Amino acid sequence: SLLSTVLAFDLGASSGRALIGEFIQSDDDAKPKLQLKEIHRFPNQPIQVGNHLHWDILRLLHEIKTGIRIAFQEGYKPQTLGIDTWGVDFGLLDRNGELLGSPYHYRDAQTEGLIEEVDGMIGRDVLFQQGGLQFMPFNTIYQLYAMKKASSPKLDMAQTLLLTPDLLAYFLTGKRNCEFTMATTTQLFDPRKQAWNTGLMDRLGIPSRLFLEPVAPGTAIGPLSDVVCRELEVPPIQVVAVGTHDTESAITAVPAGDERFAYLVCGTWSLLGTELKEPLLTPETLSLEFSNEGGVGGTYQLLKNIMGLWILQECKREWDEQGTVISYEELAQLAENAEPFRSLIQPDDPRFYSPSGMVEKIRSFCQETDQPVPKTKGQIARCILESLALRYREALEQAEKLTGNVFSGLHMVGGGIQNKLLCRLTAGALGRPVWAGPVEASAIGNMLMQLVSRGHCDGLLSARKLSAASFPVMSYEPEETESWNQAYIAFGKLK
Ligand code: ADP
Ligand code: LRH
Fold this sequence. Notes:
This protein is an alpha+beta fold. It has helices spanning 57-73, 114-122, 124-131, 140-149, 153-157, 164-173, 180-183, 198-204, 226-232, 246-252, 283-288, 310-321, 328-337, 358-368, 377-403, 420-430, 441-453, 460-470, 481-492; strands at residues 2-11, 15-24, 33-43, 47-49, 52-54, 80-85, 90-93, 160-163, 189-190, 195-196, 219-223, 238-241, 262-266, 270-276, 291-294, 300-306, 410-413, 434-436, 474-476. This is Rhamnulokinase family protein. Residues 262-453 form the Carbohydrate kinase FGGY C-terminal domain.
């Protein structure tokens, strides 16, 4: 029998999707399971306007509304819905509650050079002690500081800052909310004090009035507003603040059996880390540049933000724009057939962060480091995938060093695991098994927190058990360990 139906919106930097989750108890007395159905998928394309890169937030709202409509048209009756998105970005509301302009995309160039500038004002140690994050140019702190430096009138007029998932929930409910996991991606939330860092905001000229008190994942925000219900002809279902940061939703769905495990959330970004009960704010964490992000169920996630499949996405975009659209399956196939260990890049080299010209950037990296320059699509894709796999090894070893844990293998989740070659290469590079699944981890984690909020699931551990019982996992065993060890040495010399 059907115990509950939930609707999850998972918005990544490359695409968004709506999935229905049915929590089902079968007749044969087995434990209840979660069943997924994808009902809507849409691209998420940033738009350059003048000097700024923006998200098309109204289009995303439109697609979410479309997803809600489709759910009911297809006969589902979700009782709740949740939204998770990429981290750090936000919209500003004026005193009438209207959105001030289009939210900036985190890859907007306005934050260039600001890490160093803010370091100079505040000090890197202090920033790390009080923010816990890896120094990424996109962190909310730098975006707001960029607006301050540009004397943005929007910043003067703004009354409330809503992080992207809260902004979208606000459009649907009219209720302003601030969910904890997203709050911890701003670098303005102090993980030790568990409070907004108003002292830091004052020093940078960021108005502290903008920030709402964070609520724990699993908190109900409110029902769909009357206007939305009338427009879509749907009942006022409840919107829940899930683990609204997509990374944290994905980690919620990792089907790990034990308390200590390592994971890799593999999408546009690669987030590799391990779950802790408290933030680890040591000098070693700072020097190895790991983040402490707030997770669901009172956890902290010690993780490394790695450039990820973004590099391949950008190459694909370039090739597609030249007229021959190539699928990720085809690219993986070409990479499979390409010569192994021909050339490597350091995926986290800053040049790979900004959009455009990616193929050329890869070639010049190889040239500068005296390696064969990759020419074909297959050679380029192979170079990216092998380099990522080696970077994962480095990050996994660093996570072990920081925590003193030893991990017997790596759980991989997210859209990137559809690239089976990447999973295989990762197992090879690590010299340890990879357990891949589920693909839709963020949407599943989103659903699991809806089930927690409705009392169907009593917390993170049982949520993970439900994920493990409901979705298959594919194992990859290490191969060609000696060649990988050689490649790892070559990779280490690239810095
Ligand atoms: P995000 O949530 O950040 O938008 P996803 O989790 O959807 O990202 O993962 C997107 C990545 O997954 C793409 O960059 C691509 O490399 C990979 N991918 C998606 N579909 C496939 C596929 N069919 N085969 C291989 N790789 C794929
Ligand atoms: C992955 C992600 C990651 C952030 C980045 C902006 O989608 O949320 O955790 O650091 O986007």
